[in-house]
Amino acid sequence: MAATSNRRGSLSGRPTVVEPIKEIIRLDTFKGKFAASEFVEALSAKLVAHAQNTPRQFDPKPFIRTFEASIDELLRLKRKVHNKIDDLEDQAQASDRLRKKKLIEINDAMQDAQNAFEALESRLGDVGKTAISIGEQLETIDKQRTRAAEAKDLIQYFIEFNAGDTSRLDDVNAAGPEGEFKTAVIVRRLIALAKEVDLAGTEAAKTNIEDYSERLEKQLLERFDEAYRDGDKVVMNECAKSLVEFNGGESCIRAYVNQHEFFMNQSDVDETQPRDDEEGNEAREEPESEALAKLCHEVRRTCKKEWEVIRAVFPNAPVVMQQFIQRIFAQSIQTQLESDLRHGDDDSVLSYLRALFKAHSTILALANDLHKLDEDVVAGNAGKPVLTAIINRSFDDLFVPYVEGGKYVEAEQECLNNEFMQHLSTFQEYAAQRARTPRGKVVAKAVPAAPSSPTKTSPTSAAAMMNSLVTTMNVLSSEVAQQIGLQAAPEPMTPEEMGMPSVSLMLKLLQAHVEAMTRCRQLTQPSEMAKNGSLLFQQLIETVGVKYLEVALDMMIEDLQYHDVKQQPTFLQLPMVQVAQKILQLLQLHFQCSIVPGIASSPTAHRDMVVYKNGFMSTVEHRLNVLVQKQIDAIVKWLETCLNGQKKTDFRPKDEISSNGLTVTLPCAQCTAFLKDAYEQATYCLAGHNLESFLREIGSSFHVLLLDHLKKFVVSQGGGLILLKDIASYQHTISMFKIAFLNERFDMLREIVTLFVVKPETLKTVINEGHLSRIELPLLRPFLSQRADWSKLTHLERDLFQPGASRQQTARVGGGRDGARGGDPAF
């Protein structure tokens, strides 16, 4: 501050700030975007230009004077701004105080107005209560006065009726529609009064009132009928109002419904339709299946159109519409339904159930459309459907006689049984023929039974004996014609004709069951669905599973079990493993897609059916395992039979032969050819782990047979080459199985066979090399003893088998049919 004062003092003698500085240092300069460098440049622009134009040394004094003057001007401007801010703050505070004062005044005024309004509202409420009380009293008095006047008139009418005078009421009735309505009200009240009055001398009044009421009702109905025939809705509405007020309108509603053209047309059709003419039935068979659908379509159209008429005519339109719909279901639809079901029942149970299912679907669609009509049209602005109860009750009443008390599920079970028996008839004929055929004999193809005549005849009648004779002659002539070549041989037998299951037949059976489950889900009540679904699934398992699949597997197992070991076994049964697996897969898929949705609502039924289904599948899988094992046993038996055909001289030829002329022996050729056939059949019928286990079992069993086979023959030097050729052929065939375990076993077997070929002096070397080095020496002795020259190698025998010379090895030759089962000693 001292420096500032000194600076100002030193400049006291110079003139006032020049005008350009005042023009630059203004309040508008600092508004908006302000840059200090631009501000300084503006203050010193002229001084800089003057200094540049002056050649002498730079003089800072002009700049100092200019900046000092600028600072003084800025301070003056700052004081001016601060003063203005203070003035504005004072004005704002004064305005705020004034605003608060006004708000307090307004609040007080509003409070006074609210208090006044509440007081006025309280007074108006008191006045309103008083007015309501007065109004109620006036209304009560008016009602009492009206009732008294009406009672007086009613008593007067009663007295006049007792005297037989009805002229005054006739005049009222003749006054037009309003007079008719008033007359109906008076007569209704007179009827009620006559029932209450029990005085002597009033019998004439009662009789006259009854007669007059009948004449009035008849008069109104005649006018209603005439207007109905003329299509005059106004007159119909007038009569309907009077009749509704008179007796509820039941008579005019009946008249309207009974005379409706929809029911009249249906009655004409029913009367003209032929009943017993067989040709007529056949002619209308196709239209019959579509008649119900056409009828339902007509009902939809009629109900939508008729509601507009009923609403315009009747004051109680919903009640009339209810009776109209109830009559449609009870008369037209029920008649057509009974006709369809009667024709279906005459055909078969399946046709009956299909007709019932189709009718249920068609009528259910109609009921849903009527519900929609009720919600969108009939209910109107009320928003509450009025036809729901009558539609549901009428629909249920149609089908109750056909589904109640287990009737439906019994018919479904009968239908399924017929369907199953029809599809399984060929298989069952084979099974019955097989049961009559001695074991070991070929089962002849069952001869289909002659079609039964529709006329019942006695078994001993001439017609029955003639039919039997003709059938027998036809069969014999066919067999003779085939034998002499005059008739072509019969077509190949189907799997069912050979007693074997097939996927195609199972698909037909499941298709029938899917159709039954579809009907069951629609025709069964939700509370009974789990029970009925379980019954139908149990029938499927008991009929198709136990009586078809299990029986077929048992027959195939029996064929393999009692197969003649002297005959080469066939592989007819092996493909049935794949067929049975596919059948189980289809059954599982059917269970998930068709059965579970129907029984899922009952956890208990679902659990029981899962256990039941799994138990059946386990039984079938056990039979499949037995079947495969029997097939393996048959294969091994035949391999053993082939090996038993080996001659003693096959491995001791009299003449020495060269290695170029060696061929495998006949048993070897038979075994390898049979093994290749078994491998091809197995790869076609089995897969994955099942295929590997099957081939492993055969290979292991064959390995055991070959080990025992080598111990039965004395082998010479040349015979060893033949034996080595056989073993190489076996090894090559087994290598097709692509199982490392079997390859190792047959490698070891081949090294054992080399013991018959090597020279005596190299036996010790061979025994201590390769796989043989892991075999205990005592186990090799039975093979070495079969060398033709072994009796001459006593010194070698002593060296190899003297006490303490055996090797303790962990590996063993041979083994059971697989490594897991154990059995014979293993190498």
Number of strands: 0
The fraction of residues in strands falls at under 5%
Helix-residue proportion:
over 70%
Q: What is the string of helix and strand elements?
A: HHHHHHHHHHHHHHHHHHHHHHHHHHHHH
Largest sheet: none
Q: Mean pLDDT, rounded to whole units?
A: 79
Keywords: Coiled coil, Exocytosis, Transport
Coiled coil: 71-123
GO cellular component, one term: exocyst
InterPro entries: Sec10-like, Sec10_HB, Sec10_N
Describe, in plain words, how this protein is organized in 3D.
Keywords: Coiled coil, Exocytosis, Transport. This is Exocyst complex component 5. Residues 71-123 form a coiled coil. The chain has helices spanning 2-10, 19-24, 36-53, 61-162, 167-173, 177-196, 203-230, 233-247, 250-258, 261-272, 278-283, 285-313, 317-347, 349-378, 388-403, 407-423, 425-436, 462-484, 503-523, 526-561, 575-599, 603-644, 666-685, 688-710, 717-735, 740-753, 763-767, 777-784, 794-801. The chain is mainly α and 827 residues long. Helix 21 runs parallel beside helix 23. It is flat, with a radius of gyration of 57 Å.
Nutshell version of this structure?
Residues 60-172 form the Exocyst complex component Sec10 N-terminal domain. The protein is 74% helix and 0% strand.
Features:
827 residues, mainly alpha, disordered N terminus, disordered C terminus, transport, Sec10_N, Exocyst complex component 5, exocytosis
Write the layout of secondary structure elements.
Layout: H1 2-10, H2 19-24, H3 36-53, H4 61-162, H5 167-173, H6 177-196, H7 203-230, H8 233-247, H9 250-258, H10 261-272, H11 278-283, H12 285-313, H13 317-347, H14 349-378, H15 388-403, H16 407-423, H17 425-436, H18 462-484, H19 503-523, H20 526-561, H21 575-599, H22 603-644, H23 666-685, H24 688-710, H25 717-735, H26 740-753, H27 763-767, H28 777-784, H29 794-801
Helix pairs in contact: 4-7, 5-6, 6-7, 6-8, 7-8, 7-9, 8-9, 12-13, 12-14, 13-14, 13-15, 14-15, 16-17, 16-19, 16-20, 19-20, 19-21, 20-21, 20-22, 21-22, 21-23, 22-23, 22-24, 23-25, 24-26, 25-26
